[in-house]
Amino acid sequence: MLKIGLTGNIGSGKTTVAKVFEVLGIPVFYADAAAKSVMVSDAELIKGVKQAFGSEAYFADGALNRKHIADIVFNNADELARLNALVHPAVFRAFDEWVLQQTKAAYVIKEAAILFESGSYKMCHQTILVSAPLEHRLQRVMQRDGISRVEAATRDARQMSEEQKSKLANHIINNDGSRLVIPQVLALHQQFLAVKA
Ligand SMILES: CC(C)(COP(=O)(O)OP(=O)(O)OC[C@H]1O[C@@H](n2cnc3c(N)ncnc32)[C@H](O)[C@@H]1O)[C@@H](O)C(=O)NCCC(=O)NCCS
Ligand SMILES: Nc1ncnc2c1ncn2[C@@H]1O[C@H](COP(=O)(O)OP(=O)(O)OP(=O)(O)O)[C@@H](O)[C@H]1O
Questions:
Q1: Which of 78, 142, 171, 186 is the most exposed place for a label (fewest CB within 10 A)?
Q2: For ligand 2, what atom is nearest to the CA of residue 143?
Q3: Which residues bind ATP (predicted)?
């Protein structure tokens, strides 16, 4: 199965792009959502997260206390590395299991905020970077999540720069408002279908 990695820095529009691929009938695995799912369903992982970040990492009903964890990990690179080491192996497994179920797909997309940082791009045949200037991205995230500029910028600072990512990516979708996104997705879709054929 042809596996395409899709990434972009915070607020770049990668989820928006992923939805366009879904409309074209291409299955999309959302790594961020999968991470949140395993963090509340995998007993070993829950234990590890509580050991690392305290019992406040979960609410009494078992839901993830995202703010508690985010406040710790996005302000400390070592703590983020610790969280990643706990969560990523479980997400990689979930992706492998999911791919096996996509028997009818022409190809599949893995959407992940940290595709390059986590090394999971190496398990994809090709990669797409969604690119937009920092100011656009911060504005979008502040509007979408109701967080401050400082909070949004702090998260961005924890990610590899767009410049570094653009050197690793096979394809770039420009989402700075100067070009329509849908035609760029359609052009890539045709390329990926041709690989499969
Ligand atoms: C820390 C958590 C609980 C915060 O949740 P919250 O809902 O506030 O943020 P959300 O998950 O929507 O992330 C917002 C953005 O932060 C950035 N971000 C998230 N995780 C990471 C990470 N591990 N490293 C760098 N940036 C990250 C991304 O741009 C992401 O899109 C959550 O991000 C998490 O569990 N992260 C660890 C799991 C992970 O690595 N996910 C990323 C893909 S596998
Ligand atoms: N071309 C665009 N024009 C206007 N708004 C856009 C555009 N692209 C994305 N957005 C909006 O910007 C916000 C961020 O986009 P999206 O959620 O797709 O980004 P993301 O890369 O998945 O972000 P994150 O890493 O934070 O999850 C969303 O509210 C989305 O609707």
A1: 78
A2: 29
A3: 11-16
